[in-house]
Amino acid sequence: MAAQPAAAATPHLPALGDASALSLAQERRLGDEIARSLFRSPDYLDDPLLHDYLQTIWQPLMQAAQRRGDVSPELAERFAWELLLSRDRSVNAFALPGGYLGLHLGLLAISTSADEIAAVLAHELAHVSQRHIARLFERRQQQTPWVIGAMILGALAANASRNADVASAAVMGGQALALQGQLNFSRDMEREADRVGLGIMTEAGFDGRGFVTLFDKLQAAARLNDGGSFPYLRTHPMTAERSADMQARLYELEPLRQAQSPIPAPVHALMAARARVLSETGSDRLQALAATLRPAAGAPATPAVGRAPGPEELGRLYAATLAAARLREPALALQGLRQLQAHEPADPATQEQLRWLHLELLLLLPPQALPLAQQQALNDLLAAALQSERRAALLLAAQASLQHGPELQRLAIARLQARTSLHPGDALAWQTLAGLHLAQQQPVRAARAEAEARLAQLDAPGALERLRAARQLGQTAGAVDHIEQSIIDARLRHVEERVREQALPIR
């Protein structure tokens, strides 16, 4: 592809008036612009179950970082501190300016404990809390921040070529490609992130050995066959010096080690299996996962109930069951669910994950394919989920209500309105609410909810377009809802200001 001028290649990046070190406001603004491009990527994923699970790891890490003083009150308030999930199968994680962190499904899929994911997130959190990105700017003051921002997008696009928007920002010619290597953190920064990250994760109750076990696993796999699947190792090389330093720090922490991880091993196994399935886009791989539910010739259709499976076996069954449901094979999916339920896991967290898998299966499978008992189970699960305080349960139930009557939809609308009032940045909740309003023949409210979803993903121009559409729909409706129109007018003024702010250069 021919090189293009930098200005033409970075239409969504801010123009910065100063190439000096980034202030907190500048770094947040740059991070917002990069995140806005990532939100538009087809690889961006907001899976409610994985989101809730990762938050059980991320929130204790953030709280520990604040208790330790690694994240100051000002930094906690000014930065986004948001975790973005990509369905990319490569093993990668990254820190972005302004408190955004990224995690690929491929990394979650190969992990064997919550401690390993905590180690990765704590390490990336430390890069942000120690202002390593701003320090890179200090060292390269001859390069304007928007150039480095485009280079960050380019580096991400190299591992997500399907994202046309991010890829277009990366087309800056040979100079940018040659400079991308300069964005890697220095060895001193990596050691500092190791030290701070280890302190954060152990303070949060996770086992520090997760750091070493994950890197050992990645290095062993990469030595056998990299093929570009392990970009995390290229940007975070685990040198012998770093490994020895981590081992020494772990030895010092031995007396303080937690007896048990705060997250049950079976729960992590289920979520790693879920990541494995959701990262697959081809039916062949899903068929291979689902095929493990089919017993070999002469084998029983279900395992003996008395045998308690380990986390690995539970994960295999979960992946096979979800894969069968995504392939719309009801008999096979329900068979897998029965096998999972027959094991009767002891801990409540694992039981809850299996309940939501049950609900998800009933949503994915054709209603006419469900036995009468499963239809009744769906009604019971919906009633419980709509009253749940868990985001995943509420969103699953709200999406399910679209296939049911208006009474259930109205209840889902009320619950989602309560959630969005407390969490206005929840884009998926707004988008689900928009679908419910459309089902209830409320196009004005649907358009406003769509606008809020766009705004939650930092797309102020898109939000403005939907709000203007909502106002137009309201004015042409038979009976004008003056309260709704006043809300739209107020939101229009707010979003117009956001659009103007995004167009200004960062000073």
List the helices and strands and how they pair.
Blueprint: H1 6-9, H2 24-39, E1 44-45, H3 48-68, H4 73-78, E2 82-86, E3 93-96, E4 100-104, H5 105-110, H6 114-129, H7 132-139, H8 145-158, H9 164-170, H10 174-179, H11 187-203, H12 209-224, H13 231-235, H14 240-253, H15 265-278, H16 283-290, H17 311-326, H18 330-342, H19 348-364, H20 372-386, H21 391-401, H22 406-422, H23 427-439, H24 443-456, H25 460-476, H26 482-503
Helix pairs in contact: 2-8, 3-6, 3-21, 6-11, 6-12, 8-9, 11-14, 15-17, 16-17, 17-18, 18-19, 19-20, 19-21, 20-21, 21-22, 21-23, 22-23, 23-24, 24-25, 25-26
Give a brief outline of the structure.
The chain is mostly helical and 507 residues long. The protein has helices at 6-9, 24-39, 48-68, 73-78, 105-110, 114-129, 132-139, 145-158, 164-170, 174-179, 187-203, 209-224, 231-235, 240-253, 265-278, 283-290, 311-326, 330-342, 348-364, 372-386, 391-401, 406-422, 427-439, 443-456, 460-476, 482-503; strands at residues 44-45, 82-86, 93-96, 100-104.
